[in-house]
Automatic annotation (TrEMBL):
Belongs to the peptidase A1 family. Keywords: Aspartyl protease, Hydrolase, Protease, Signal. PROSITE patterns: ASP_PROTEASE (PS00141), PEPTIDASE_A1 (PS51767). The active site is at 82, 281. One of its GO terms (biological process) is proteolysis. This is Probable aspartic-type endopeptidase OPSB. The lineage of its organism: Eukaryota, Fungi, Dikarya, Ascomycota, Pezizomycotina. One of its GO terms (molecular function) is aspartic-type endopeptidase activity. Residues 1-17 form the signal peptide. It comes from the Eukaryota. Residues 64-394 form the Peptidase A1 domain. It holds the Pfam family Asp.
Amino acid sequence: MRSWLLVFPLFIPTGFSTIVTRDDEISKVIRVPFSKERAPGFKPSKRDNTRTALQKIDNKDFLFYANITLGTPGQNLRLHIDTGSSDIWVETPGSSICKDPGSCETGGKYDNTTSSTYSYVPGLFNISYVDGQFATGDYAKDTLQIGGVGVKDVQFGIAYEGTSQEGIFGIGFESRQSGVGRGEKQYPGLVSQMVDQKLINSRAYSIWLNDLNAAAGEILFGGIDTGKFKAPLTTIPLSRRTGMNHATDFIISLRGLSVSNANGDTQVLMNESRTVPALLDTGASFTYLPKDIAAQLTELVGAETRSEYKGPAVNCSKRSLQGTVNFDFMGTTIRVDVRDFIIDATDEPNKDNKVLCYFGIIGMAEGSVLTLGDTFLRSAYVVYDMDNEEISIGQTIFNSTSTNIMEIGSGPSAVPSVTRPSRVVTVLATGSIPNGVSFDASATSTDGVGGAGSGVNVSGSATISARAYLSTCLLAMLSVFIGSFTVFV
Ligand SMILES: *[C@@H]1O[C@H](CO)[C@@H](O)[C@H](O)[C@H]1NC(C)=O
Ligand SMILES: *[C@@H]1O[C@H](CO)[C@@H](O)[C@H](O)[C@H]1NC(C)=O
Ligand SMILES: *[C@@H]1O[C@H](CO)[C@@H](O)[C@H](O)[C@H]1NC(C)=O
Ligand SMILES: *[C@@H]1O[C@H](CO)[C@@H](O)[C@H](O)[C@H]1NC(C)=O
Ligand SMILES: *[C@@H]1O[C@H](CO)[C@@H](O)[C@H](O)[C@H]1NC(C)=O
Ligand SMILES: *[C@@H]1O[C@H](CO)[C@@H](O)[C@H](O)[C@H]1NC(C)=O
Ligand SMILES: *[C@@H]1O[C@H](CO)[C@@H](O)[C@H](O)[C@H]1NC(C)=O
C-alpha cells in the first residue's frame, strides 16, 4: 500500500498529470486496495420479494474488505467497507462474541489496553439493525493507519455486545452516523479527519469496484485514477431532502434506461419523463429497478422468479447473451453488459441438474427507492465528493493495469478530468426518519438550468436504508428514511 505524490494540475486537464515519486510531505492521495470476497453465508432465502430492505439483506453477495491498523503499535483489522453507513466500529477481545480464544480472527480484534494512543470518548455507541441485530459499546479515538498513512484521533465504536465477528468501515455522510439518528451531535468522521490532518484536500473518495471476477478493487481517498475509466467523468449534483441544506445520501437522478443488442439496436425502457432518484450503494449486491422495468429485463434474459429462490433465477449459460443495459444520467450513459448481471448462485450448484445463476436486477418493492448496487456499480467509476455534494461518474475499464492517480483539490470543481452536463436535474427528497426527525415538504430547486417548476414532478415514496454488513449478512441500520421524492425535470 502506498500513497503517491501528485502534481495537481492548475486547470482541468485534457491530458494526464505526472506521478512523481512518493513524498509524504505533499502527497494528498491515500490509495487503498481492497479485497472482495463472497459473503460466507450467502444463500438464497425463501422469503418473498416484497420487502426490499430484507431482500437486500438476504442478497448480500460480495463483501469489500480493507486492511487497516488501529492504535500504537498498530493492531491489524480487516473491515467491511460501506458507503451506506457512517460509523467505523471494531470488535474487541472481551466482547460477548469474541471472548472465546480463536474467535474473530479473520476480522481482528482491537484491544484498547495495548495502545498508547487510545483515548476514551464519552457516550454510548449503539447501532441497531432492522432484523434485531446490533452492535453496542463505547466510543474511542485512536490512530488509524490506512493505505500506508496514519490518521490520528479517529473516532470509532468498540462493540462489547453485538452480533458480528467483523467490524465495519462506514464512510458515508456524517449526518448518517448512528448517534445522529438518536439526536446526538455528529463527530468528525475518518474522511474529515484526513482533510483536517492535511492528508487529502477535500472530503472525496473514488471507488473502482472492478470486474465481478477480479479479486480486488481500489478506493482512493482524495484522488482519482484516470487509468481506471474512460475519461471524462461526468459530475452530477446529489439530491437533498426537502428542507435540508445538505445532501445526506449518495442519490442522483437516473434520467433514462434502455437496452441495446449486439447490433446496437436500442429499446428505451424509461425515458426522461420518468426521471427517478437513484441511490448509489456499494452495500447492495443487486440493482433494484421499478417492477415493470425489472420484469421486462427479466423476461429479456429468460430469467424466472421462483418461489423457492429469493431472486430471479437464470440459466448461467445466458452469459453468452450479447447486449447492454444502459443507464442514462445527466450527460452520460453507463453501459452494463447483460452478462455482468448474471451471478453464480454458488450455494445452489447444479440444482435439478441446472447450473443456476441469479439475475442481478430485482423489482423494487412498493415504497422503496431505486438502488444501483454492485451489479451496476462494477461498470462505473464513481467519485463520492461529500464536500461539493456531487457524484462524478464514468464508464469503468475492467481489469485495467494502467494507473494514473490525480489529486482531488479543494473547493468547487476540484475533481479533475470531469465534464458537467449543460442541463442538470435536481432530485429533491421529502420525508422523515422514524425517530422523529422530519423534513418539511416545501420543495425548492437547488441547482441547474430547468429547475423547479419547469417540468414534470414524479413522486413516490421511498425507503432508504443506510446499511452495514454484519458477519454473514447485510443488515439495515436503524436510520431508515421513509419519505417521498419529487423530481424536477
Ligand atoms: C489484507 O491482509 C491480509 C492478511 O495480511 C492479506 O492476506 C490480504 O492480502 C490483505 N488485503 C489487501 C487488500 O491488502
Ligand atoms: C478499555 O476497554 C475496557 C473494555 O474492554 C473498558 O472497561 C475500559 O474502561 C477501557 N479503558 C479505558 C482507559 O477507557
Ligand atoms: C440500542 O438501541 C436499541 C434500539 O434503539 C435499543 O433497543 C437498545 O436498548 C440500545 N442498547 C443500549 C445498550 O442502550
Ligand atoms: C477480469 O479478470 C478476471 C480475473 O482474472 C476475469 O475472470 C475477467 O474475465 C476479466 N474481465 C474482463 C472484462 O476482461
Ligand atoms: C416517454 O415515455 C412515455 C411512456 O413510456 C411515452 O408516452 C413518451 O412518448 C416518451 N417520450 C419520449 C420523448 O420519447
Ligand atoms: C441451460 O443452458 C444450456 C445451454 O444452452 C442447456 O444445455 C441446458 O439444457 C439449460 N438448462 C436448462 C435447465 O434449461
Ligand atoms: C412540482 O412540485 C412543486 C412542489 O410540490 C410545485 O411547486 C410545482 O408547481 C410542481 N410542478 C409541477 C409541474 O407539477
